Protein 1
Amino acid sequence: MTGAGSFRSGFVAVVGRPNTGKSTLVNALVGEKVSIVTARPQTTRHRILGIRSRSDSQVVFVDTPGLHGNARKLINRTMNRAAASSLADADVVLFVIEASGWHAADEHVLQRLSRVAAPMILVVNKTDLVRPRSKMLPLLEAVQARQLFAEIVPVSALESENLERLMELILARLPAGERFYPEDMKTDRGRDFRIGEILREKLMAALEREVPYGLAVEIGAVEDGERLASIDARIWVAKDSQRPIVLGRGGERLKAIGQAARLDLEAFLGKKVFLQTHVKVRRNWADDARALRQFGYEDES
Ligand SMILES: Nc1nc2c(ncn2[C@@H]2O[C@H](COP(=O)(O)OP(=O)(O)OP(=O)(O)O)[C@@H](O)[C@H]2O)c(=O)[nH]1
Ligand SMILES: [Mg+2]
């Protein structure tokens, strides 16, 4: 045990272009899946807290939507704003890139970070994909030469490699302070939000091309009994043509997606789940402020 007064706490914003592994990293650091992950870019659509509590510290990670330059639709602008707004209150910023190399889109993110006062740690993720490791050296040297980062830390979020080192470097930069949240709280997001996200994860993973980006999930009634939870979910698509794609021939695709979601939901809720889904069309909802509010994509900044 550490003595009173040495407790550290703070907010750590996790930012980067889409798909670099921000949510995977937050989940690994928190030790629980608080944010969904898919192989597709633009999976995360909200600011989501992941809280890591220890006897001498509490670190509040802020997972964010991937920052992207070409934000034409309202939802994309809302996502970018949610990500950018996390920077203002951050004690530390983790800028997550991929070990395979520096992209133009990373440069875009860096521009958005130009006015950030908090120390920035560059997290070079997915090191497990680069073999031999010496292949990373040119990237590490190039980012070092820019002298923008308090630290540069290669990690594999997927394989939990070098995350302890990353935690040490974060903790060293957090101020002394009290807990912000109860010790057993892992996220700020409630049950129904997490249920919707679990279903959206399975939908995004199963669907292709533009369909994943036309999806929104709205959770209706949840009857949470002692041994069975009964969940009613609406799946919204952005075009008439997307509805039959989600359903699949004879409804087979949606059935498989529902089954995958049900397994995760049963693990999450710790009981049997009866999941009912309805696919509905709301044309062009991603550019419709009212629809965004209805689906929970309110402006969070
Ligand atoms: N090989 C490898 N894959 C990883 C690693 N970290 C994340 N991934 C994969 O990269 C993909 C994207 O991961 P996410 O955690 O959803 O990435 P993100 O940055 O949160 O993406 P957005 O929310 O879309 O911005 C998924 O397929 C992950 O499994 C890693 O360390 N190694
Ligand atoms: Mg994410």
Protein 2
Amino acid sequence: MTRCLFCFSSYVKKPSWSQLLLIETDSDLCLRCLRQLKKLEGDRCRICSRELLVRNWSQDGCCFDCMRWQRDQRTHFLLDKNISVYQYNLFMKETLASYKYRGDAVIAEFFAPKLYDLYMKHFRGYVVIPIPLSPQRLIERGFNQSELLLTGWKNATIHPVLQRKEREKQSKKSRRLRLASFDDNPFSIKKELNNISQKLNKAILIDDIYTTGTTLRQAAYVLKQIGVEEVVSLTIAR
Ligand SMILES: [Zn+2]
Ligand SMILES: [Zn+2]
């Protein structure tokens, strides 16, 4: 018997057909969790990696949301690309919530290697920047989930150049207000690192979820202001 890394229920670990066929090797999870963990697949938005359906597909291979970001001069090409691994479904929502608020570091052990593989495949050499928490949130939570996702990233330059100030919850805001939030950006470059841009041509932001894309774009905005040419992001779920 083994305990499932996600739900802690015990299950019998035995080779399944999918494992024999090398389709899925996440045997640290019980079958119930494994079935609910859905990888993003099929046609995806070329910018944010959202699964494209007829109703959210704009002309040039990106979703309506990204099209709106691209149309606005202030947010145009802030974030060059986001890659997410899983669908942000109810299961993922609960899993990530337990991870964030109960401090389940073990889930970082599950997700960190998966993000690392994608990093090595698509963004090798990019300077890795975890999305920071504000000092107050960090004290409340005790750890930064984005930093935990970098566990075991051996061949990566990790440079936590960003800092974050306290602000109200973003989910309460409308899209119009979210656009205004670039004037009141919670992110800034740490003072001691003000002249860092020469070494930072390509940066990759790490966070757990891509929801509206505002947080990542606010962080990207600060980096582009200091001359970083390309800013991409890697997130667990979209
Ligand atoms: Zn489970
Ligand atoms: Zn998109």
Protein 3
Amino acid sequence: MPMKPNAAIEITAFRWVPEFAQGVVRDLRARWALEEAGLDYCVRLLGRERPPEYLKEQPFDQVPILNDGDVRLFESGAIVQYIGDKSEALLPRGGEAKYRAIGWTYAALNSVEPAVLNVVLIDVFYAEQEWAKLRRAGAVDFAKLKLKRVSDWLGDKTWLEGDRFTIGDLMMVTSLRFLRHTDLVSEFANLDAFVKRGEARPAFQRALEDQLATFREHEPKGEAA
Ligand SMILES: N[C@@H](CCC(=O)N[C@@H](CS)C(=O)NCC(=O)O)C(=O)O
């Protein structure tokens, strides 16, 4: 298990989050990539209130960041690409294959995730608001269009670029998992199978279990919950 207290690579994660976010907080991406790469890492846990200095590490006060010696990174996409650069298991070494894998990380973050998060925001944070009830159908249609595009591209391939798993798949699977409270992904059988293939990878399982174990350990008790 690459999670080691004194490892050179450090990431940040939350000590605890409410149940709707457990298993999808974005440090999962860093953990999963590090597990795939077989790189040891340690985790600095943060609470709901971050120390003001954290803004110097993450300008948006979010998780994750990654520190590795002189390299200090924020944004899960950049972090996963950095880890990919350290491991051919995640990112082809050069040429078109490398940049197509990187391109899919942008596609996940920029073409798919905003549409996905629109639905999540409505369902999780604003479900009771009148405007959200009116907006939901449109948001779902837009998300479905994005899912259909990915599904059509994927076809009967195992991963987005064929037989080989890359950081692009890692990012896409984690973006699609934000919809786990809906049936939207399972409406596309190949996309559903794609997400399940990602989740079945031992590296993903270890990453998920480590994130969830932290939340179990720090579950608020009594009135603080
Ligand atoms: N674009 C950023 C988004 C990071 C992000 O949204 N992190 C969430 C957890 S998944 C967070 O820290 N939320 C707390 C907050 O925004 O206050 C990335 O991909 O790293």
